[in-house]
Design brief:
There is one protein chain. This protein is mainly alpha-helical. It has one domain. The chain has 9 helices and no strands. The radius of gyration is 17 Å and the shape is globular.
Length: about 180
């Protein structure tokens, strides 16, 4: 039997990277969400302890007195997917696969705020996500080094494409991110 040692940050990194790979291969959104939620939770806990910028940002945008309510609603799908004691016959309704995108995005920002360099998968994901959602770039980040991974004309055309094509382009961005990070 092979034994493995893994730190919390390594576990979260691996979970997020696998979730990104599965996402860009258009795999099962429930499996992706389960992995992303587990990695996000580790990073959120570490981020709260370190009082990271993303944690401060989330505290700012959640109305005072509503933090517990917000996180309960935010974590509802993750809790549904990992527990059955309270609702063994429960059904998760209205799950939208794009929830994976937001969860992975915030996990990547927590990871970066904790002082780690994004993996090529994380860099590719953030590039892909922000390419599709340019309206939030100024709200979230400044001075990210995302140059050279996607061309402007590719990004412009990406928004109009169906999700399957958007995800396929994400795989291309992953390859480019590996090239950029290798130098």
């Amino acid at each position: 039997m092979t034994e493995t040692k893994v730190s919390k940050i390594e576990a979260a990194e691996r979970q997020i990277d696998v979730a990104i790979r599965l996402l860009f291969h258009n795999e099962d959104p429930i499996g992706i969400y389960t992995l992303a939620a587990a990695g996000f939770r580790i990073l959120r806990d570490l981020g709260e302890k370190a009082d990271t910028q993303i944690d401060q940002y989330l505290k700012k945008i959640i109305r005072p007195g509503m933090r517990g309510t917000f996180w309960k609603a935010f974590n509802r799908p993750a809790n549904f997917l990992k527990h059955a004691k309270q609702d063994p016959d429960g059904i998760l309704e209205n799950f939208q696969e794009e929830a994976n995108d937001v969860l992975i995005l915030f996990a990547c920002f927590y990871y970066k705020d904790l002082g780690y360099e994004w993996t090529p998968y994380m860099l590719a994901f953030v590039t892909w996500y922000l390419s599709l959602h340019q309206e939030i770039v100024e709200l979230l980040i400044e001075n990210l080094s995302l140059n050279g991974i996607a061309e402007d004309d590719e990004i412009s055309a990406l928004k109009a494409k169906p999700r399957t094509e958007q995800l396929a382009f994400g795989k291309i961005i992953v390859d480019r991110a590996f090239e950029v990070m290798r130098g």
